[in-house]
Amino acid sequence: MQKTFDIPREKMTNEELLQPGMLSCQGCGAALSMKLALKGLGERTMIVIPASCWGIIIGTYPYSTLQVPVIHVPFETAAVVASGIRAALDVRGEADITVMAWAGDGGTYDIGLQSLSGAAERNDDILYVCYDNEAYMNTGIQRSSATPPGAWTSTTPAGALKEEPKKDMEMIMLAHGVPYVASASVAYPDDLVRKFEKARNIKGTRFIHLLSSCPPGWRIDSAVSVKVTRMATQSCVFPIYEIEKGKYTVNVLPEERLPVEDYLQAQGRFREMGKEMIRAVREQVDQRWLELLARADPGKNQASFD
Amino acid sequence: MKQVIKGNIAVSHGVRLSRVKVISAYPITPQTSIVEDLSEMCATGRLDAQFIKVESEHSAMAAVVGSETAGVRSFTATSSQGLLLMHEMLHWAAGSRLPIVLTNVNRSVGPGWNIWADQTDSVSQRDTGWIQIYCESNQEVLDSVIMGYRLAEEVSLPVMVTYDAFFLSHTSEVVDIPEIEEVDAFLPAFEPRYRLDVNDPRMFGGMIGPDYFYEERFVMHKDSMEAVNVYPRICEAFEQAFGRQYDVCETYRTEDADLILVTAGTITSVSRIAVDDARKAGKKVGLMKIRMFRPVPLDRWRESLGNALRVVVVDRNISAGLGGVFASEVKSALFSLEKRPSVYSVIAGLGGRDVTPQDMSGIIEHVLAADGPGERPVFWGLKE
Question: Which domain holds residue B224?
Fold first, then answer.
């Protein structure tokens, strides 16, 4: 594995803004993601949380597990409530505070896409994070438009598996002309923290897409939650990269690529997939990976795995 | 300073004079000129505010939920379909106890597309927890925005100021526009008890179980009811400062009236003419104008209407399957009286159909000749 991490582990802060007592499932990628994200952002952060697992994970009244201000908002409004807070902070002269919308894939890819598009088009000075566990996990595993093809969910059961590919959210955000788009995951914590720290210091709409493992929804053991997340990147299913002012950088380049089949077979949710579907998914993954490499390094647009 | 301005421009002056700092709105006929005028004010610096030009009314309300939670006085305006699109966020704003002021131009709800005066849009939001104030003139619109912020911030509930499409929104009237220093003396700066603050981190609007939710709603209801007592004090202070008189409801020639009309919005103005005509003809007719509709000023309605023989509620709105919404609420308010008037329900003017003084005189004659109110509303001016 080639690493391009900027923050040596020993320099990562020990300060925890995520306190014990949260209500996540064991091995929850979304919970670990928040812990790491706040290491990059620090305490001058305000968080907007729409309906999502994190609406529960944080704790119920009168308890909160986060040591920063949090506002919970209806499902489709995370980005625009963040825009409203940003406007108010600018009026108050508190321009240095980061306003972060922290939404799931349902709140980002589906019901929240309109208000996210509005905020991105205005280039409002907010950080929008999608922690993507690839289905409506909080309501008990229903398909979203971020659900990968072949994944079992309670609304795409055996015999009616989802066939459509995930929306490409990074491309959708990039098409708005925003200054920073990145993907990250808890499998590469240094990279994740670095990206939040970097995003904090960029003006305008910043978008970070986190692949966020969900043991109950993915049908995996909580002990392998981070490992399976890493396999997603090693198999090029979830490339880790960033786009700064239109310039692509692939941050994690697997030296030896893991077969897509290994990633799929590690999870119970893909167990209903037939050979044809697996082949189709592999082709999609390959194509998108090659496209990404070509964008990152236009001189090498003939790149292949051979 | 007196100027001849449209109702929508009266709104933007109210917003400017209230020193609103965040505006978020989405254009819809017949509200659009508010958005345009405020954009112009912000662009030229006449109003020092952030204007978030959102992609929908739902987002407009969501944006001001964010800005108010961060402790800054905020405003939005809409009408009809836009108000309905906000519905979810109206509940959220009230439940969050945010003193947002919204102006709504009363326009009918489609289909078919009809942009004219009708109060079905705002009456259908009566259960959202918002305080509602109905206006009859452009002066009242401007004054109600300024008083609205003071009321909202005193009781920690949002206020909707609402007025008829075109009859006010696009009709020019003489309006006395106060000086901003005078308004400053009447309306103190917004100092919320709690706000989003990195030095005092709190959580807003999160999960709340059966152990606490019920009490939260009880307190919200109690504070809403208290607005009935708070508002007259604010109106009194306003009268001292600006010389114009307002109240939770207003009566006209009701002292010895046997028949009292009940109206909201511009139908009130034509009803005054009909009342004067009826008085000239020796008929004891009066008028009660609804201003505050949520919370319902129950005692004031009972005092104003309790001694009449007949109460005639004219609704420019309809709840299909029941009839006029104001009529239903007036009946409900009067029910506990031992001796109560007969309540007649009349629907009139839906979708902007003109309601003239002659119509109101006809309604008075119709009721005086009727045997009793009957179970069903009268649909005045309905084509056969």
Answer: 2-242
